[in-house]
Specification:
Blueprint (H helix, E strand, L loop, with lengths): L11 E4 L7 E7 L4 E6 L4 E6 L5 E5 L4 E6 L6 E6 L2 E6 L9 E8 L7 E8 L5 E7 L12 E7 L2 E9 L2 E7 L4 E6 L4 E7 L6 E9 L8 E7 L5 E6 L3 E6 L4 E7 L4 E8 L5 E7 L15 E4 L15
Antiparallel strand pairs: 1-24, 2-3, 3-4, 4-5, 6-7, 7-8, 8-9, 10-11, 11-12, 12-13, 14-15, 15-16, 16-17, 18-19, 19-20, 20-21, 22-23, 23-24
Length: 312
């Protein structure tokens, strides 16, 4: 039985960007006080500056699943484009050219109907990212063709196979836990996590959307400083706050877009929840503000700083 807290009374949800077909992969960068995110099908990367509200973007060549700044180097990012991990240079200006500095590797070469979807750097700066199976009008949907990977100084390691839609990632160092979402399961996985090696083990499910009577599937995810998970509900018009220790929903925040894709905490005090959404016409037309990025305040929660990718 879901037990909702009372923080929703103070919540404010504000649209901060114009709609995309699929907004994804939000990353708050403390150094620039800016939010980076991607337009997957538009093949674009985006920057939104909190102080000025200036929103800039530029194009890549291929569907892009995430953008994460590189530690110690200005204007360099690791991005997931189709099946490739790339290091790029982008100055953050509108429409400016992107220079590919290095290709770090390619995955899913035997699964052409997949592409990189969601990725984050773990607490030590390793890259964790997975692929999803292609879907949409005119596309043959083949489930379980995706996989989940780790990229570090040892190369690329496949951590899980038979993934259909790789999505949310979050780490809890105090609990030595890694949380992960394969959306089609409608559940959240928990793994034991070794911060020294980046290894994950002992998979089990700690939350079930259906048992908690939630509409929509779990998509992107982040974690706050108290260990609660904040989970985007695709086709659910909401972000939910989950207690992973007992598997229940403790808060639900309505978002004015049906297809909520991902979340991250940001802002000077890391107490703003940034929410990306999509406007993909799967069954019905998704009208504005569907597809916009939103800023949610008044949640009474704070997140951890987003970690940059460490290129060793």
């Amino acid at each position: 039985m879901a037990c909702l807290d009372k923080t929703t009374m103070a919540v404010s949800v504000q649209k901060i960007t114009e709609p995309l077909l699929i907004g994804e992969g939000p990353h708050w960068d403390e150094d620039t006080q800016a939010l980076y995110f991607v337009g997957t099908n538009e093949q674009t990367i985006h920057k939104w500056v909190l102080e000025t509200g200036v929103h800039t973007k530029t194009m890549l060549h291929g569907r892009v699943g995430f953008i994460i700044p590189v530690e110690g180097v200005a204007n360099q990012f690791v991005v997931g484009v189709e099946h490739k991990f790339l290091i790029i240079y982008w100055d953050g200006e509108e429409g400016s050219d992107v220079d590919i500095i290095k290709e770090l590797g390619e995955i899913d070469q035997d699964a052409p109907n997949t592409f990189l979807n969601d990725g984050k750097a773990d607490p030590r700066g390793r890259l964790f990212a997975g692929t999803m199976c292609d879907m949409g009008p005119g596309v043959e949907f083949i489930p379980e063709k995706g996989a989940f990977y780790r990229l570090d100084d040892r190369g690329i390691t496949q951590l899980c196979d038979k993934i259909t839609i790789s999505n949310g990632l979050a780490w809890d160092l105090q609990e030595k836990a890694f949380y992960y979402i394969n959306t089609v399961e409608n559940k959240i996985r928990r793994y034991d996590y070794d911060v020294e090696t980046g290894e994950i083990s002992n998979q089990r499910h700690i939350f079930d959307c259906k048992k908690n009577k939630m509409t929509g599937g779990p998509d992107g995810m982040t974690i706050d400083t108290e260990g609660y998970l904040w989970v985007a509900l695709f086709n659910g018009s909401a972000v939910i706050k989950v207690d992973p220790k007992i598997g229940t929903v403790v808060n639900k925040v309505a978002i004015p877009a049906e297809q909520v894709t991902s979340v991250t905490f940001g802002g000077p005090n890391l107490d703003i929840l940034f929410v990306t959404t999509a406007s993909f016409n799967l069954v019905t037309e998704q009208k504005p503000p569907c597809g916009a990025t939103f800023m949610v305040t008044g949640l009474g929660a704070k997140g951890h700083p987003n970690v940059k990718f460490k290129l060793r």
